[in-house]
Amino acid sequence: MHKSILYGILYVSLFSACNTATHKVKEEAKGHLFIIGGGDRTEPLMERFVALAGGAGAKILVIPFASEDAEGSGKSQAEEFKNLGCTADYILFKKGEADLDENRKKLDGVTGVFFSGGDQNRLTAILLGTAFLERVKEIYRQGGVVGGTSAGAAVMSKIMITGDEAVNNDPDVSFPCIKKGNVLTAEGFGLVDFAIIDQHFIRRKRENRLINLVIEHQMPGIGIDESTAIIVSGDGSFEVAGLRSVMVLEPQFKTPPRSDENGNLSADAIRLSILLSGDHYNTTPKPPEGGF
């Protein structure tokens, strides 16, 4: 066989294999993410969560590790779900115990998982790298709903805001600047990999820290206010629900971001959208180019 024909066949075969592999990686989840920005969880919001999890047939597991009073939070939030007409329970375990059979079995038949508020760093410390967390993600991929509030919202993105600063030393003012390296992040659960999630957003005036990260990571930022949620579909689009609003910041840089000698950041174009309940949105992320 002529070499050019042979190489052509090989190229087509490799191209087809790569396309198949890419298709598998990008296969859309069948479920939803239900990400609440903190504050009061109104009954209509939680009814919507239960409906997505299967209504009266829903089986929901509350994961309250973020809370200082994990047991109290677990009990109260499980009771809240039960009052909405579904089956609900909560789970408690320590770091290193996630993959014990007794704990993984708690996820059997679960159609909704809910992460409580508190400190998101507690959630990642206990769950990152565990088969338990992978099973939670599988519930989402198979059609269930995975949600959370406050810390349980921040932990959803791959790049997770920790709440800490590196440059600002003023104890009386949080995130007063937009400077290179100030906003500290850590690895989150990665259920949202196309944007960075922030919470209590407008209520606590957290625009500076999200703008900071949008510039540095050249990735969209989604700031969710209190008593408000985004309901994310498998394709990355989302609907806003709740009492307040959601702010989306999308980098649309014409030139690479830069910083001055004092670390202050510069960016020439960030698209700002403010969304209300019932609005739908689809972020349009672009691969990072240059920058930091």
Short recap of the structure:
The chain is 29% helix and 25% strand.
Description:
An 8-stranded mixed beta sheet has the order 3-2-4-5-1-10-11-16. It has one domain: Class I glutamine amidotransferase (GATase) domain (Rossmann fold, 3-Layer(aba) Sandwich). The protein contains 8 helices and 16 strands. It has 292 residues and is an alpha/beta fold.
Number of strands: 16
What is the CA-based Rg, rounded?
A: 21 Å
- Distance between the ends: 50 Å
Side by side, the strands of the main sheet go: 3-2-4-5-1-10-11-16
Shape: globular
- Based on secondary structure, the structural category is alpha/beta
CATH architectural designation: 3-Layer(aba) Sandwich
Topology as a string of helices (H) and strands (E): HEHEHEHEHHEHEEEHEEEEEEEE
The number of domains: 1
Strand content of the residues, in percent?
25-35%
Query: What is the CATH topology classification name?
Result: Rossmann fold
Proportion of residues in helical segments: 25-40%
Q: Write out the CATH superfamily name.
A: Class I glutamine amidotransferase (GATase) domain
Q: Count of helical segments?
A: 8
Which CATH class?
Answer: Alpha Beta
For this entry, give a set of tags.
single chain, 292 residues, alpha/beta, Rossmann fold, 8-stranded mixed sheet, 4-stranded mixed sheet, 8 helices, 25% strand, globular, disordered N terminus
Break the fold down into its secondary structure elements and pairings:
Elements: H1 3-25, E1 32-36, H2 43-53, E2 59-63, H3 70-82, E3 87-90, H4 101-104, E4 112-115, H5 120-127, H6 131-141, E5 145-149, H7 151-154, E6 159-165, E7 183-187, E8 196-199, H8 207-217, E9 221-224, E10 228-232, E11 238-242, E12 245-251, E13 258-259, E14 265-266, E15 270-276, E16 280-281
Parallel strand pairs: 1-5, 2-3, 2-4, 4-5, 8-9
Antiparallel strand pairs: 1-10, 6-7, 9-12, 10-11, 11-16, 12-15, 13-14
